[in-house]
Specification:
By secondary structure, this protein is α+β, with helices and mostly antiparallel strands. The chain is built from 14 helices and 17 strands. Strands 1, 2, 3, 4, 5, 6 and 7 form a seven-stranded antiparallel sheet that branches. Strands 9-8-12-11-10 form a five-stranded antiparallel sheet. Strands 14-15-13-16-17 form a five-stranded mixed sheet, sandwiched between helices. The longest helix has 53 residues, at 277-329. The model is unreliable at 544-552 (pLDDT under 50).
Length: 552
């Protein structure tokens, strides 16, 4: 307890002085005999370096595959792209390949193994990687995987394909969408990471022992098996991540680091970064000599710098970062920190990372909110958001004593429309009708939603029966004006039927969403029974009893 009380009076700067002094004094003694330990230290530093570099390169290489996953996920969601090989499919993948130069080809394969549409082919050919196709056909929609290194049938070059199953109904797999990655791009990334030739960088498939990519002279080994090589044995023993001292692919002893690429399937790409052992030890000798010469000078500078810079480079920015982190942790995702340019790089990176994390969390929150609340077809609010908004509107109307109206809208004879024109035309009709409804219910606070199937719903806060009738009339007119051809409808165009429920400030009893929906649904049924293409008022318990207007 006494020691803790003594230490509690020391701030960060004082503790830095104590720390530097405690480190420097033993260091001066250790430097005298430290030369004999330089080899171990150099190897440890090189080990850390190759491990960190391997992880960094793995992250960069993973980004290539991540880009492919994002592209395939985006393309697979498009209705025009399926294993049936629609007319639009070829143009779609060709445009995608043109905008994403890192992929040599993009295509779709049906269950039989034929490429039905392709970014560079205009006729059907067999897909080369049959194992990848079999794995895709056995996977679920949304899964992604990579194949083995193969020689592309179209490009004639070593490639690896990234694939995802295709499905028309979102559940049954009917084929495979793939993007082939140019392995020269992976080798180019390796070249950029080899520190000017000081390191060797390669990508090895741990499943079949083939070299997938390499920097410099290692490019000549691409598609070569290294089965039985000490490097592959060490890689497997390290379980694809770690370090080892082993003979490298270029025949010299190296300190190597391993790191796996995120995506895997028939292939398991692993990054291998090697540093020549001779060069590491040669650098260690030079470092030892320099260390002896500058040790005293560094000790003096460190003591002075710790005192003057301790506050500005550690205490103050740490306090700022801690405060912002606490705000973010408390839910304030708008909190940001500003770290001066003179601060240490680690502090600046930490501050930037903290700000970036907050930005990503905020963006993710918005994206999730949008996905959770929006109907994917029409862009209107979905059923989940409608239920939440309806509950809030009831509470607001009950609290303020204001009016509230709800419209339920059903597209007339929609089943026969789908039967005659197909589901794609039906989807387009729903989108256009949804846009017309949103244009008619466009006040702040109004909520237009897709209630389900061909049904829509509108919440009209501070709106009584007359206002609801006015909005309903505009919707009826706007939908008719769309002139969506519908041979199964009496007038030859698509129409809607509307049922409404309204409360008034004079009503008694609690308002509930169920009350509005039930009443509006009964009115909708009455409107359809009365001949469709019209609006009917609902008369439910606790709601305004409004007589139905002539012609409404």
């Amino acid at each position: 307890m006494r020691l803790q009380q003594v230490l509690s009076v020391f701030g960060i700067r004082s503790r830095l002085i104590i720390l530097v002094t405690g480190v420097v004094l033993p260091l001066l003694a250790l430097l005298i005999v430290g030369a004999i330990d330089d080899r171990r230290l150099a190897i440890e530093r090189a080990t850390d370096d190759v491990r960190a570099t391997a992880r960094l390169v793995a992250e960069r290489q993973s980004q290539v595959f991540d880009d492919a996953v994002v592209l395939l996920s985006t393309l697979s969601a498009l209705a025009e792209l399926d294993a049936a090989g629609s007319a639009e499919c070829g143009g779609l993948v060709a445009r995608a390949a043109d905008r994403n130069k890192q992929f040599m080809t993009i295509g779709v394969v049906d269950r039989s193994g034929d490429i039905v549409c392709h970014s560079r082919l205009d006729k059907r050919v067999r897909f080369t990687d049959v194992e990848l196709l079999a794995q895709a056909l056995g996977a679920r929609p949304g899964d992604t995987m990579i194949g083995r290194l193969v020689i592309g049938r179209v490009s004639g070059r070593p490639t690896i394909a990234v694939a995802t199953p295709t499905s028309r109904d979102g559940a049954t797999v009917d084929g495979m969408l793939f993007a082939s990655i140019d392995l020269s791009a992976l080798s180019d990334l390796a070249d950029k990471s080899d520190q000017g030739g000081a390191l060797s960088v390669s990508v090895i498939d741990a499943r079949d022992g083939k070299v997938v990519a390499g920097s410099g002279a290692l490019r000549r080994l691409i598609n070569t098996s290294i089965e039985g090589h000490p490097l592959l044995t060490a890689l497997v023993a390290a379980r694809y991540e770690g370090t080892a001292e082993v003979r490298g692919l270029d025949g010299v002893d190296e300190i190597v680091g391993f790191a796996p690429v995120r995506i895997q399937g028939l292939s398991r790409p692993v990054i291998v970064v090697g540093a020549p052992l001779d060069a590491v030890l040669r650098d260690a000798a030079a470092i030892a000599a320099k260390r002896l010469a500058i040790a005293l000078f560094v000790a003096l500078v460190a003591l002075l710098a710790a005192w003057f810079l301790g506050y500005w480079t550690l205490a103050r920015p740490i306090r700022l970062l801690t405060g912002v982190a606490e705000q973010i942790g408390a839910g304030d995702l708008t909190a940001r920190t500003r770290i001066g340019a003179f601060q240490p790089a680690e502090i600046r990176v930490l501050g930037a990372t903290l700000n970036e994390t907050a930005e990503r969390l905020l963006a993710a929150k918005h994206r999730l909110q949008s996905l959770a609340d929006e109907d994917g077809l029409t862009g209107l609010a979905n059923r989940r958001r409608f239920d939440a908004e309806m509950k809030a509107a009831c509470a607001q109307a009950e609290r303020d004593g204001g009016s509230l109206s709800t419209l339920l809208i059903d597209v007339d004879h929609f089943k026969s429309f789908n039967d005659n024109f197909g589901h794609l035309a039906g989807d387009d009709a729903l989108r256009r009708i949804g846009a017309a409804i949103r244009a008619c219910a466009n006040r702040p606070g109004d909520v237009a939603a897709r209630y389900g199937g061909e049904e829509f719903a509108v919440i009209l806060p501070n709106t009584g029966a007359d206002g609801a009738a006015s909005v309903a009339a505009r919707i009826l007119s706007s939908v008719r004006d769309l002139r969506i051809a519908h041979g199964g409808a009496p007038g030859g165009v698509a129409t809607v039927s509307i049922g409404s429920a309204s409360s008034s400030p004079t009503r008694r009893g609690a308002l509930t969403p169920e009350m509005f929906v039930r009443t509006a649904d009964e009115a909708l049924y009455a409107a359809k029974a009365g001949g469709r293409n019209q609006h009917a008022f609902g008369q439910g318990p606790g709601l305004a009893l409004v007589p139905r207007a002539e012609g409404a």
